[in-house]
């Protein structure tokens, strides 16, 4: 068993699988066998959805001419969340890195989002707090309906 990601729950000073499927994966490791574990906080789907709702609101409000996808690419480049590739003729290409759940922990995503908020405010003059307020208002209206 190599390279398997398991979601675990902390119980006292132990980690236990968060569901039956992960229990089965853990059972494939022989009893007493030492394994290497890297800890990272699980990403919050709610936080992720809120972020993308904010990006949609920026596009909807006309503060970005393009799609949410192109805005996200711009943000990744603006924050340096890219792989820099030098072409055969010396050209520089910026390949945006992923921000999906497997690529980033919650802490990494929060850090990325802070840098993105700064880039949006400084370079596009987006009032990020107003965008967040608008998203929250829309969310409350949907919940009330």
Strand content: 5-15%
Query: What's the total count of β strands?
Result: 4
Number of helices: 5
Q: What kind of assembly state do the chains in view correspond to? A: single chain
Low-confidence segments: none
Cα radius of gyration in angstroms: 20 Å
Give the spatial strand order of the biggest sheet: 1-2
* Secondary-structure class: alpha+beta
The global form is flat
Helix content: 40-55%
Largest sheet: 2 strands, antiparallel
Q: Encode the helix/strand succession as letters.
A: EEHHHEEHH
End-to-end separation: 48 Å
What is the total number of structural domains? 2
Task: Report the mean per-residue pLDDT as an integer.
Answer: 90
Detailed description of the structure:
It contains five helices and four strands; from the N terminus they run ββαααββαα. Helix 2 packs across helix 5. The protein is flat. The mean pLDDT is about 90. The chain has a two-stranded antiparallel ribbon with strand order 1-2. A two-stranded antiparallel ribbon has the order 3-4. It has two domains: about 40 residues, no CATH class; about 100 residues, no CATH class. It is about 50% helix and about 10% strand. With about 140 residues, it is α+β, with helices and mostly antiparallel strands.
């Amino acid at each position: 068993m190599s390279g398997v990601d398991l979601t675990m729950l902390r119980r006292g000073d132990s980690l236990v699988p968060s569901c039956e499927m992960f229990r089965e994966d853990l059972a494939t490791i022989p009893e007493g066998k030492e394994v290497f574990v890297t800890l990272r906080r699980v990403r919050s789907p709610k936080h992720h959805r809120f972020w993308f709702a904010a990006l949609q609101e920026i596009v909807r409000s006309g503060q970005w001419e393009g799609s949410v996808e192109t805005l996200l690419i711009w943000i990744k480049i603006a924050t340096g969340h890219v792989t820099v590739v030098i072409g055969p003729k010396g050209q520089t290409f910026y390949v945006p890195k992923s921000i999906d759940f497997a690529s980033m922990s919650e802490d990494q995503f929060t850090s990325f989002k802070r840098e993105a908020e700064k880039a949006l405010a400084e370079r596009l003059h987006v009032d990020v707090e107003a965008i967040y307020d608008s998203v929250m208002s829309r969310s409350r209206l949907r919940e009330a309906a």
